[in-house]
From TrEMBL:
<keyword id="KW-0966">Cell projection</keyword>
<dbReference type="Pfam" id="PF00400">
    <property type="entry name" value="WD40"/>
</dbReference>
<dbReference type="InterPro" id="IPR024977">
    <property type="entry name" value="Apc4-like_WD40_dom"/>
</dbReference>
<dbReference type="Pfam" id="PF12894">
    <property type="entry name" value="ANAPC4_WD40"/>
</dbReference>
<dbReference type="InterPro" id="IPR001680">
    <property type="entry name" value="WD40_rpt"/>
</dbReference>
<protein>
    <submittedName>
        <fullName>WD40 repeat domain-containing protein</fullName>
    </submittedName>
</protein>
<feature type="domain" description="Anaphase-promoting complex subunit 4-like WD40">
    <location>
        <begin position="261"/>
        <end position="322"/>
    </location>
</feature>
<dbReference type="InterPro" id="IPR011047">
    <property type="entry name" value="Quinoprotein_ADH-like_sf"/>
</dbReference>
<keyword id="KW-0969">Cilium</keyword>
<keyword id="KW-0677">Repeat</keyword>
<dbReference type="InterPro" id="IPR015943">
    <property type="entry name" value="WD40/YVTN_repeat-like_dom_sf"/>
</dbReference>
<keyword id="KW-0853">WD repeat</keyword>
Amino acid sequence: MPTVAPLDLDSHCLATAFIADVPYFALADGVVHRLDNGHKWSELHDGLLATAYDAAKGRLITGGEDGKVLAVGAGGASEQLAEIGRKWVTSVAAGPQGAVAFASGRNAYVRFADGKVKELAHPRSVEGVAFSPKGMRIGAARYNGATLHFPAAEGKPVELEWAGAHTGITFSPDGNFVVTTMQENALHGWKLADGKHMRMTGYPAKVKSLSWSAKGKWLASSGAPAAIVWPFSGKDGPMGKAPLELGTRGNSMVTCVACHPSQEIVAVGYDDGMILAVRFGDAKEVVLRRAGKGAVTAMSWDQEERRIAFGSAAGDCGVIDIAA
């Protein structure tokens, strides 16, 4: 039976991560907490807006209302990577070779490992940034589509058009597809080889959480009373295929998803604070946490694949030990 070690905090939890095997909890008030031989914390931003886990470097990238981009590492040590004045940093992403991307207003920025920063201007505000898993390429979600840049090279970016407001962006692990979250209750995708569109609709709520399965065959999403899991194993992705619906709970909405690091299992968090683990193959469910105070807003697995750090909109956070 899984056990839960609670950590009650007093602000919306934006992200969780395991750094050097220590669980971290990044809150909207700008404080990053960790359970490191006791409860410790670091006050990093005057309001935190965006986070991204950098697995290659073992650090958490944070962006705040104070215009700063920081990297938080083991022991809570922080390093300032960039500062853009009195502007809000609304999206961050970790990329290859120590590169970091971030967005503010109509601009996306890429900070290379040597500290140089390249600014990428857009006609409308940039709502999300993400790196491709292959090469130094970033995607920027914007109004009416997405823009793909090769920031280390000169040349025109690739424009992917689709009407509407696109609020977040992710590349498939094989680099073949781009998927955006939208202001409407939908996802939209493009097959990069030929620009074909992928419409993923039918959600009763906005999709705020996405997670790719270990080998990139599935994309799990929130925004419905079940985790909606789209198949990406074929060359055309989910086009013409129905998604899996896992962990259906009629009176609750899925607010967060986190796929297992190596197996086809997804942790599913709900608006009442409950967390289930569900297997893709047979939809078998295991309750990991009973309902809590607020909607689950963040989950992450540790490297040993036996613990999940979670956080909620109400600040009730903790660590689930599945193997206990």
